[in-house]
Design goal:
- The structure is a single chain.
- About 40% of the residues are buried.
- The chain is built from 11 helices and 10 strands.
- The termini are far apart.
- The chain is an alpha/beta fold.
- Helix 2 (about 55-70) packs parallel to helix 3 (about 100-120) and helix 5 (about 170-175) runs antiparallel to helix 9.
- Residues about 1-25 have low confidence and may be disordered.
Length: about 290
């Protein structure tokens, strides 16, 4: 346990030392992720997999690579948002789990783990401009950031896996329990609660309500500016110490978590639930 703790600390120090005042120009306009750095040295990562930014293997790989680019670029911070006007991210792509090729399924899950490690445990400051619905994996991405500004309106956010007969992984639960109160998290997870924007603000699942996407991004930038006079190394190590327990738990149990996911996919009841959900989506789209 001590070795794992020292590894995390060394990782934070190494990453934080890369955070210098100078920032290289960066622009990566991939098909699934658009990554740019503005004049303030803030990286804007925009998910753009129409129609709802479902997290399939390809999108997760691009997010993972983009997070590496942000770290290497010495950005002052990163804002995660979406190109969709109504959906931040609909969460994990159901088709990656329905009648899957198990080898691809394993890569899919390990890549998702990588994305969480890199986002939740990043040395650079992070914020999410949540400009639409954010169920399940979309909620996880936003909670993994340090700050959330969500556009007001009829949008919802939450970990609603149980509604589909799916149990959220322990690290999903840990992320929520470190964002809102344990009591609120237990109720939300067991009832598949999707919070309205007002409810999310009240329980601190989000930090501010924005009028639109531009306002959400500006609020995120205001948050990131709080760190301008804070030494990057001290900030990064403090953040990692606050977050090291859930990170360490998944690192220790990573392979077991993969096997649990693969076993889950092999369950006939789970496949039946996924099939029913897919059929319901098709019927809704046909109307």
């Amino acid at each position: 346990m001590r070795e794992a703790k020292m590894f995390l600390l060394r990782q934070a120090v190494s990453n934080a030392r890369q955070l210098a005042p100078s920032v290289r120009a960066m622009s990566s306009k991939g098909p699934l992720v658009d990554l740019t750095v503005d004049n303030d040295g803030v990286a804007i990562m925009t998910l753009q997999r129409p129609p709802v930014n479902s997290l399939n293997l390809d999108l997760l790989k691009e997010i993972s690579k983009s997070l590496d680019d942000v770290a290497k670029n010495k950005s002052r911070g990163m804002i995660l948002t979406s190109s969709s006007p109504t959906v931040f991210s609909a969460g994990l792509d159901i088709m990656e789990m329905y009648k899957p090729d198990m080898k691809r399924a394993e890569e899919f899950w390990t890549t998702l783990q990588d994305v969480w490690f890199k986002l939740y445990g990043s040395s650079f400051a992070t914020a999410a401009a949540v400009n639409g619905h954010a169920p399940a994996g979309g909620c996880l991405l936003s909670m993994s950031c340090e700050y959330r500004a969500m556009v007001g309106g009829k949008f919802t956010i939450g970990l609603n896996e149980t509604a589909l007969g799916i149990v959220a992984p322990k690290w999903f639960m840990d992320t929520m329990c470190r964002t809102i109160s344990m009591r609120q998290a237990e109720l939300a997870l067991t009832t598949a609660k999707m919070f309205t924007v007002d409810e999310a603000l009240k329980c601190e699942l989000i930090d501010e309500i924005a009028t639109d996407k531009a306002d959400a991004i500006n609020k995120c930038k205001t948050f990131l500016k709080k760190f301008e006079k804070i030494p990057p190394l001290a900030r990064a190590i403090t953040k990692l110490k606050m977050r090291e327990e859930p990170i360490k738990n998944l690192q220790t149990n990573r392979q077991a978590d993969v096997q649990e996911f693969l076993s889950f996919l092999k369950n006939p009841n789970v496949q039946q639930s996924l099939e029913m959900y897919i059929q319901a989506l098709k019927q809704k789209a046909a109307k």
